Every structure is written in C-alpha cells, then in structure tokens.
Amino acid sequence: MGRKMYGRFYHELLKIRQTLQENRVYNGTSALPPSQSQSYPVSQQDKLLPDISERERFEKELKLSRDLFFKIFQCSPLLMAVTSCESYRYIDINEAFIQSVGYLREEIVNKTMKELNILPEEETQRFNSLMRQGANRNLEFNLRTKTGDIRSVIISTEYINFDNQQCLLWEMKDITEMKCLQQEMARLDQLNLVGEMAASIGHEIRNPMTTARGFLQMLGSKTECLQYKEYFDLIIEELDRANTIITEFLSMAQIKSNNFKRLSINKIIETLLPLIKADGLIRDISVETILGQVPDLLMIEKEIRQLILNLARNAMEAMTSCGTIKIKTYIEDSNVVLAVEDQGIGIKPELISKLGSPFLTTKENGTGLGLTICYGIASRHNAVISVDTGAEGTIFYIKFKLPQLS
Hints:
Number of domains: 3
Distance between the termini: 44 Å
Structural class: alpha+beta
Radius of gyration: 35 Å
Largest sheet: 5 strands, antiparallel
CATH superfamily of the largest domain: PAS domain
Number of helices: 14
Order of helices and strands: HHHHEEHHHHEEEHHEHEEHEEHHEE
CATH class of the largest domain: Alpha Beta
C-alpha cells in the first residue's frame, strides 16, 4: 500500500483514540465515572446504554485499525521507518529495513543515522538540506549497511503525528539490483554498437590496408629500397597490428551460429593443449591441466575454443617468465566449472567491475576486446564469468549450468 493509505489509517487511529478519551468506558454497570454517574438519575443512565455499545464498537475498531496498520507497516516489502522530527532518532522500523541494512532492531531503535553510520559522508550535506524541506518524494540516496556495502534507495517521507509528537514516516525502495541491471544493459548496448561498427566499416578498412601492405613488401624487396627496409618492416608490423584489431571487431560482429552440440569440454582443452603449450614455451611458461570428471555440455565448439585460447593467452600475458598457468575443470554445486589460473600480479580492484567492457586493457599493445568476446561467448552459453584476484595471481571461473536430466 502507498503512503496515503498509511496516513489514512494512522489519522483514523487518532480520531478513534480521541473519541475514546472523551467518552471513556468504565468497568461495571456505569457508563460514566463515579463522580458523574452520581449526578444522573438512573433513568438517564439507562438512556446512555446505547452509547456504551457505540464506544465498545469504537474500541473494537481501534484494535482492528491498530492491527491492520501494524501488519501493513511490518509486512511491507518496502523499507519503512518512523523517526522523530526533532532528533531524527528511529522510533520504529519494519522487517524489510532490518534485512536490508543488516542491523538488529535493538541496534537501530533510539539511534540516529549518524550514530549508525548509515549515511555515507558524501550524502550527508544533501540529505540534511532536503530534510529541512519536510515531506519529500522519490529522492535517490545511498545507504551504508552494517557490513559496509552501499545500497541505492529511492526515499519518500511524510509528516505524521505519532504519540502526540511530530514524526517522519519513511518509505524506501531498494534499487541496487535495478541499477546493476541498468549498467549491464548499458554495457550490452555498447557491445552492440561495437558490433555494428565492425560490420559496417571493418571490411572497408581492411581491403586498402591489404593493398598497402602488399606494395610495401614489394618495395622492401627491391635493391634500390634496401636502405629503407627497416622502415617498411615497421610499417608492415603496424598494419598487421591494425589488421588484428579489425579481425577481433569482425569476430564480435559475426552472426553467431545456434548450432549447439553436446561436447566434452575436457576433449576441447586436450585438443588445444599443444597450441597453448607451444605459446607458453616461447614465454618460458609451463601449462598444467587438472581435468575432472564432468558431463558433456551443449556448446558451440568454435566459440569455446576461442574462449579457452583467449583466457590462456591473457593468463600468460599477465605473468613474467618461469611461471605456470593451470587449466581446471570440475563440478561445483550445480555447475560445470572451467578455471584458468595464472601467477601474475593480479587485477586492480577498480578494474574488476569493468571487466568485459570494450577497449578496457592494461596491456601496452592490447586491443581491449579479448575479454569482451569471452563474456559474449559465456552469455550465449548461459554461463557466468567470475574472477578471484590477488597479489599471487588471478583465477577466471566460467560456470556452465549442469545439463538437465531427460
């Protein structure tokens, strides 16, 4: 129910309570206090008996209204609280509020936001300014939980009279997951834009580059141009690097086949192993595989090969020589897990949430598209990529759902 409904119930409670205070029902046969009942004849007291029934009805309505208000307040999926207008101390909170912020009820009641450190410092000034305006609607704020996590909420407030004191009724909607979804949608839109760019201009750029490369090779082989061969080779190298970037663009733009087949991920790894080891041999890096007993999965072989190669090469590029990368498969909970582990220096914390974004790279000659392609492949296979990183290395986990038994 909305805030207006809460306000209506509460004001009805106040009216009923005021009526009862004015016409208090006493135990016994008398409907009036002794001092008043003595001043009325018995016949007049009999006339007041219907009023007793009316007051009893008011009492019953008051109890029902109180119970209804309590149920609405406590059972609402929205975060709700009542605070004093003078001190902003919490008078009451509902279960949703407790679950969201992680504190116990007794830790919150009679405390302020400042004492609980619920409001981040950067939000304090704006919050104080807006609270002076009184009732507010749909204001976005960040709240800090007991564990230090930041939750985004939409806050609305309304003045109410509670136990003869002016209070604020708070209604908050947690939009943290919604904002994460919006960020993911923005990332997917960015991927879609990259794909459209690749499809529209990739071939047009590639064709003249191929021609230029051919002429440079021809000139570099001529006797009279031998003195410039070093420059020709440098230009050709840069053209090849540009061609690699375009190739990855085109890979993202290709219409992906839905030709899923039930395949063994272990066999795909074993097929690629000589290629990965050869790549590691050049860098003086060894490759170790620990392949567990896992069921076959519905996969597009070409894409899974690309996923494994991209992750293995990223692992090697993150390390210095004389290291080891490990490729593992195993079952965890209801997932088939592919893990690629390196012994590099780890990923900076500020980059973790941005992994998979186009053009994000820490490598000097990187394109920033390799991991983007991996995330796209994982998404098409209904898999999830997670990362565990530290000073001793990084592990990429690709978790495929176990196939349903038919």
